[in-house]
Specification:
The chain is an alpha+beta fold and 243 residues long. The protein is built from five helices and twelve strands.
Length: 243
Amino acid sequence: MSDSIECLAITMRREQKKCITCIFFIVMIAICFCVGAGYAAGPHPRTPNSEYQTVLHQSSFDEIKKAYAEIKTLEAQFKQRIFISSLKKERDSKGEFFFKRQKGFLWRYKTPKVQYFLYDGKFIWQEEDDKPYVAKNKIDKEKTGGTFFDLIEDIAKIDELFTLKEQKIEENFEVLQLIPKKEGTVISAKIWIDKQKLIKKIEIHEFTGNVNTIEFSSIKVNQSLDESKFVFKSDGKKEIVER
């Protein structure tokens, strides 16, 4: 019995690492900005133009922070594409995202297979249809800060987490290229912002060469959202493996 439990735990860890890499913001669990030494830009002379750029950059950050600070609930459809450098392959998936401030969030994948990541304020619950168990992971929010673990709250403090490298307009979107202020898995990020200052697309570049891209659509902000979405409910058919 102990051997089978250990085998299950090892399998769970492997699968969890694979799934964690697949989520954003990840999701959510994937991006470890908080590890290692802090990012520091080299000194450079200040000119009137650089003063203007600094004001412009801060203005962009302030508008994003204001928009996300006012979000109480959010739901959206998403498409995710991950380029896996070591395999030279892309992996596509689709699903839906739900968030309610002070309650939690839910990433629910519908294709290519059904799985979800549910955060209820204390634990991440991870389930896949083809797995005989549900993984329950206790979360230390002090260690996940700045990882986009909590997408809405981390974006609301974006200037604490990133340095703005470049800003431009592409079609109807404002595009910001960002550098994390702390070293970790991510080396750069790019975000596309619509006229309502909501992020419609995120592109994450990791030091491994992997590129994780997520696009959001059908975004609904501050609509009524049932709190039961953020409560894990066991069907009694799968073992719960706690870490």
